[in-house]
């Protein structure tokens, strides 16, 4: 009698391979996504452009990724999760290797926009893949490990270029970051288990639009989509322009020294895993209710002209953000009882579009009012997020007790 196929559970070999593979995919995608963020001051100096213009190398990538999320999700429904994720990793690695050859700023910006399109396949599919293949009782921790991989990738995408640019130039720094993306893609390709529960389906444009509209009309999902947007908008803004503040007076840090602040990304690696486990035990509402105030507190600590306080503030801000994102993304899948891939795609569309738009607007704010004005801008986004969380807790607290349904999203 053939053995029944069961989802991967924590402690099994399949679970370890699955989470390690998704960790590598998350690392690859986020290293590529933010590979120019630590280089923004260097790009400003090289091309004699404003912080807002330099930040387009980040905003164009996240913006095009946002627009490509839903098409990538639809492709994964037809051709398979692993196929789309692997193609995404390979394409983004190749584009990343070519970016340092860009002869002009225009070519670099076009390449980064294309980078966003190529990258979309990983975040669009990763959580749907986990939701299909991992047992519900282990899904919260599995998602936490994937998000942890994205935080390490985000760290690598910032710290590697910031260290290399000090001893070389921005082109070599980009190449070093692209090598990190290639390594993460290789880990995914070598370790990912064969899909056990995926069933291909040919989704029509009309059916997809119907599903998307149905999700948008769900008031709980709409709040979660908006929450993801304001969270990511604030996070990208802080990390886009913090480097300018630290390399300018009164701090005047070297790029490599300022870049060490990105090590605080590891706080997010830890809090994303802890938040997933805590949400499994105590409920999403409990974790979200604590994460937003923590994030706001961290932001306030970045305002004083004291480097030690700023370092603490960025660590607290980063930890709070990743805890909130981990839980919010998981909540989407629990609320969307059907067509979870589309719900996940809408969350990610809102998430990355928020990062793209707010990240660009934040540059204009920084150019006019410096860091204090930028902190007010981000604070406004976080206050809006806190209000959304309050509404979610009030309206859905009784239904937010388990993380087990979790989803189809990502970072």
From TrEMBL:
GO terms of molecular function: transmembrane transporter activity
Transmembrane segment boundaries: 20-40, 52-75, 82-101, 113-131, 143-160, 172-192, 220-241, 253-273, 285-303, 309-334, 346-368, 374-393
Subcellular location, principal: membrane
Subcellular location as annotated: Cell membrane
Keywords in alphabetical order: Cell membrane, Membrane, Transmembrane, Transmembrane helix, Transport
UniProt GO cellular component terms: plasma membrane
Membrane topology: Multi-pass membrane protein
Sequence ranges assigned to domain Major facilitator superfamily (MFS) profile in this UniProt record: 17-397
One Pfam match: MFS_1
Family statement: Belongs to the major facilitator superfamily.
Protein name (Swiss-Prot/TrEMBL): Major facilitator superfamily (MFS) profile domain-containing protein
Organism listed in the record: Mycobacterium colombiense
Classification of source organism: Bacteria, Bacillati, Actinomycetota, Actinomycetes, Mycobacteriales
């Amino acid at each position: 009698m053939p053995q029944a196929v069961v989802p991967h559970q924590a402690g099994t070999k399949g679970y370890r391979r699955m989470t390690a593979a998704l960790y590598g995919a998350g690392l690859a995608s986020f290293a590529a996504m933010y590979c120019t963020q630590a280089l923004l001051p260097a790009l400003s100096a090289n091309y004699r452009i404003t912080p807002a213009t330099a930040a387009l190398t980040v905003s164009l990538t996240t913006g095009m990724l946002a627009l490509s999320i839903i098409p990538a999700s639809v492709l994964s429904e037809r051709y398979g999760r692993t196929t789309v994720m692997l193609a995404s990793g390979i394409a983004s690695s190749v584009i990343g290797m070519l970016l340092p050859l860009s002869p002009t700023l225009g070519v670099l910006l076009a390449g980064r926009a294309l980078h966003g399109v190529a990258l979309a396949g990983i975040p669009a599919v990763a959580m749907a893949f986990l939701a299909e293949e991992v047992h519900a009782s282990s899904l919260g921790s599995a998602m936490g490990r994937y998000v942890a991989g994205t935080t390490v990738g985000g760290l690598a995408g910032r710290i590697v270029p910031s260290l290399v640019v000090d001893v070389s130039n921005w082109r070599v720094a980009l190449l070093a970051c692209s090598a990190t993306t290639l390594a993460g893609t290789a880990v995914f390709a070598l370790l990912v288990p064969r899909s056990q529960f995926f069933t291909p389906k040919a989704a029509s444009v009309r059916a997809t639009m119907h599903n998307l509209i149905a999700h948008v009309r769900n008031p709980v999902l709409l709040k979660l989509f908006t929450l993801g947007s304001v969270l990511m908008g604030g996070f990208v803004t802080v990390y886009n322009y913090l480097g300018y503040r630290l390399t300018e007076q009164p701090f005047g840090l070297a790029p490599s020294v300022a870049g060490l602040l990105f090590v605080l990304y590891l706080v997010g690696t830890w809090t994303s895993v802890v938040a997933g486990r805590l949400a499994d035990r105590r409920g999403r509402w409990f974790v979200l209710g604590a994460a937003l105030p923590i994030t706001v507190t961290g932001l306030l600590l970045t305002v004083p002209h004291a480097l030690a306080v700023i370092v603490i503030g960025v660590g607290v801000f980063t930890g709070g953000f990743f805890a909130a994102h981990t839980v919010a993304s998981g909540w989407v899948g629990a609320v969307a009882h059907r067509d979870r891939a589309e719900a996940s795609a809408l969350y990610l569309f809102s998430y990355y579009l928020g990062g793209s738009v707010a990240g660009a607007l934040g540059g204009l704010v920084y150019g006019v009012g410096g860091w204090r004005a930028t902190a007010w801008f981000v604070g406004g986004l976080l206050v809006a997020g806190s209000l959304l969380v309050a509404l979610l807790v009030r309206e859905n607290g009784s239904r937010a007790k388990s993380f087990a349904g979790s989803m189809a999203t990502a970072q």
